[in-house]
Write a structure and sequence with these properties.
Protein name: HU family DNA-binding protein
Structural class: alpha+beta
GO molecular function: DNA binding
Family: Belongs to the bacterial histone-like protein family.
Number of domains: 2
Strand order of the largest sheet: 3-4-7
InterPro entries: Hist_DNA-bd, Histone-like_DNA-bd_CS, IHF-like_DNA-bd_dom_sf
Shape: elongated
Number of helices: 3
Number of strands: 7
Pfam families: Bac_DNA_binding
Distance between the termini: 27 Å
Length: 117
């Protein structure tokens, strides 16, 4: 098992990416996404943060109502039904019933797939 080295106060180096975003090999957290939105749209970080929050709230609200969110070229957010299933308690090995659940899903669109490959 490999362990990532701790993040020290290093500044990440991003490369330009399709759709005007900036990406880096590891992952991006919310504040880094806000920084990139603000830089690419030439708006203050506070406004970019509100825009990101509004986007997340809109997608969440639509999924709660059972709607799909389709962003052509980027992807589709949807809710899928996961059936009830039998699992195992890892400490005792006893069979347990895992209830059915609704789970959020994302399917990448052609534009996103092409950009990544």
């Amino acid at each position: 098992m490999s362990v990532r080295p701790p993040r020290e106060g290093r500044k990440r180096q991003y490369e330009p990416y399709a759709y005007g975003c900036l990406v880096q090999g590891d992952h991006m957290n919310k504040s880094e996404i806000i920084d990139n939105i603000a830089a690419s749209a030439d708006i203050p970080k506070a406004v970019a943060g509100k825009a990101l929050d509004a986007f997340v709230d809109s997608v969440t609200g639509a999924l709660k109502e059972g709607d799909d969110v389709v962003l052509v070229g980027f992807g589709t957010f949807s809710v899928k039904e996961r059936a009830e299933r039998t699992g195992r308690n890892p400490s005792t090995g006893a069979a347990i019933k895992i209830p059915a659940a609704k789970v959020p899903s994302f399917k990448a669109g052609k534009g996103l797939k092409d950009a990544v490959n």
